[in-house]
Amino acid sequence: MKSKLRILLLVVAVMTAGVLVAWASGNEADKIKVGDVAPDFTVMTPDGEVSTADLKGKVVLINFFATWCPPCVKELPVLEKEVWKQFKDNEDFVLLVVGREHNPEELKKFAEDKGLDLPFCPDEERKVFSQFATQSIPRNYIINKGGKIVYASVGYSHQEFEHMIDVLKRQL
Hints:
By secondary structure, the protein is an alpha/beta fold. It is built from 6 helices and 7 strands; from the N terminus they run αββαβαβαβαββα.
């Protein structure tokens, strides 16, 4: 009986250690998490410069991507179809599709080549991205009307994307 208890305790200890290591390593790239106040940033949109102060009172979805990133390229048409086309006329909603390490010309060509009509924003020197994370794209963040992060994700899966849309709808 004692040996079974020891084995059980050892298994629990190993599993706990594994979970803690996975949790710690999964978060080291994140600078912002759900519940945090969104950092101050300024980004150039197709309509002009926008700062965090301009976004107060709006629900903001920020998508960080790169043109060379396969999951990003897979996600962007879904973002356009399921978010942008549905919410772009809602005056309480802002979408910022931030091209990490891309200039305006690259983003314009990418949009034309892919047939996308998203509000692309260049982040040539990672100034905006670096306030949210150190690595890994695609990333999505929803900022509520009060300026707090209410959703954060890394990577792309259809199931997680659907969850993001549910969060967005509740905020609007």
